[in-house]
Amino acid sequence: MRIIEDVKSVFDRDPAARNVFEILTCYSGVQAVIIYRLTHLLWGYKLFWLARFISTFARWFTGIEIHPGAVIGRRFFIDHGMGVVIGETAEIGDDCMMYHGVTLGGTSWDKEKRHPTLKDGVVIGAGAKILGPITLGYNVRVGSNSVVVRSVDDNDTVVGIPGRVVKKKASESDTFDSYAASSSGRSNDPTIQAIDSIVERLAEIDKKISKLPVDSDSKVVVSKIVENK
User: Fold this and answer.
1) Residue partners of 18: CB distance under 8 A and separation at least 6
2) Distance between CA atoms of residues 61 and 32, nearest Å
3) Strand partners for 107
């Protein structure tokens, strides 16, 4: 049963989880997903008003808004949860995870596919916005507060506004990079690399200036400046 899988998957992703009773009574993300499973079933039977009414209650109770029409796979976990919004035509694969403040939003008012598709294993950091009918490939990581408006290939890591790839084709690892904020991802960011290069160059210049002799009037000797250029 999918609800049982949803609950069990929390133990693999949250070290603070102690027992099933605590998860069912204290984890708003799990509660929201359980209620979604019910509303999505009602939506499938075309009981649209009832599904929306119950989902509205769930939003009030949990702080998480999941449209009954969204399609969500197995072992989906929302950690902390407050402020999460998942639109009507969003599709989420198996073993996906997201943190508080995430939005899977639309960019069109047309009655068509207008929300994102997440393949299996996607992890989205806190506050990130995934907008439009785009696709995030398998095992994609999205950094906190990123804004993604273009599709992302499998295993890539995306950060920034607008989102840019900072780590391509990441190899599998036993380390769970929950917020896509690992040091390896940072080192591959071209913007950060450029800034680091400038900082290093300025440090080298500062060292050279500190070694220059000064005359009695505390002025740098011009001849030494020319030599060190």
Assistant:
1) none
2) 9
3) none
pLDDT digits (tens, 9 = 90+) for 13-42: 888 888 888 888 888 889 999 999 999 999
By C-alpha distance, which of 75, 74, 72 is closest to 90?
A: 72
Give just the sign of the alpha carbon dihedral 60, 64, 65, 70. negative
Alpha-carbon distance of 132 to 160, in angstroms, equals: 17
Nearby residues of 47 by Cβ (< 8 Å), 6 or more positions away: none
How far apart CA 126 and CA 36 sit, in angstroms, is 21
CA-to-CA dists, residue 227 to 20, 208, 224, angstroms: 72, 11, 5
**Torsion 53-92-87-123 (CA) sign:** positive
Q: What is the CATH number of domain 2-182?
A: 2.160.10.10
Radius of gyration of the chain (CA): 24
Residues 6 or more apart from 80 whose CB is under 8 A from it? 28, 29, 99, 100, 126
Question: What six digits make up the tokens of 189?
Answer: 């960011």
Rounded Cα distance between 65 and 5, Å, is 21
Tokens of 55: 């989902």
* Separation of alpha carbons 62 and 93, rounded Å: 22
Single out the residue of 141, 124, 2 nearest to residue 71, CA to CA.
2
Q: Which part of the chain has CATH 2.160.10.10? A: 2-182
| pTM (2 d.p.) | 0.71
Over residues 36-87, the pLDDT tens digits come to: 999 999 999 999 999 999 999 999 999 999 999 999 999 999 998 889 999 9
Question: What is the residue type of 150?
Answer: R
